[in-house]
Design brief:
By secondary structure, this protein is of the alpha+beta class. The chain contains three helices and seven strands; from the N terminus they run αβαβββββαβ.
């Protein structure tokens, strides 16, 4: 095979790699949008912002960031697998609260992602007494075995049900004016946070 042939083959391989379709292509396409993650409430943005923060904390989430001016709340929670103590799920959630464009109420957009983490315990054996090896120390390692956006509609339904209950309990009025989750993101007047999946 000549040097020219080799160069042509390398060039063709590079072009093929450049043309490859990646999983993140189309992340902002309508078909990739979440379903059920956007609701409008009768309460105003200030009341809804406080209720969203309270709902997340009440459900065991740790607030990582809050910005009342932006209407942005970021929170996370770790959940242990009930069947396997060596597996845990790290959930990151982002809530976006804005004024509803056609009413005095507010619109809440929620997105979430999760990581599946495996914890592994390793023993180091350095001493031997007769036929027995003695563990002298342990090491703990964690491995991410899966991650992605949470797209399960029930995850968002549960959140909005809890949020509505919190608004009603606070006297702010938790009536859901409408669900706009299946409409284009523009219906919320601002682009929502990115989508999520377990």
């Amino acid at each position: 095979m000549t040097a020219r042939s080799v160069l042509l083959m390398i060039g063709a391989a590079c072009l093929a790699g450049c043309a490859e379709t990646h999983g993140y292509n189309g992340a902002f396409a309508d078909k990739a949008a979440l379903s059920g993650n956007m609701h409008r409430f009768a309460a105003d943005t200030a009341q809804t912002f406080r209720a969203v923060a309270g709902t997340l904390v009440q459900r065991g989430f740790t607030l990582e960031q809050t910005d009342g001016n932006m209407g942005l709340i970021k929170a996370s929670r770790n959940l242990a697998d009930p069947k396997n103590p060596k597996i845990a799920y790290h959930i990151s959630a982002t809530a976006y609260i804005i004024a509803a464009p056609d009413s005095s109420g507010s619109t809440v957009v929620l997105s979430a992602s999760q990581q599946t983490v495996l914890y592994r315990e390793t023993h180091h054996w350095t001493g031997i007494i007769g036929p027995l090896a003695i563990p002298t120390r342990k090491e703990y390692q964690s491995f991410v075995t899966g991650e992605g956006s949470i797209t399960d509609r029930s995850f968002y339904t549960d959140f909005f049900s809890a949020l509505e209950g919190g608004l009603l309990a606070s006297g702010a009025g938790g009536a859901v004016l409408s669900s706009v989750a299946d409409k284009p993101a523009a219906a919320a007047a601002e682009p929502p946070a990115q989508a999520a999946r377990p």
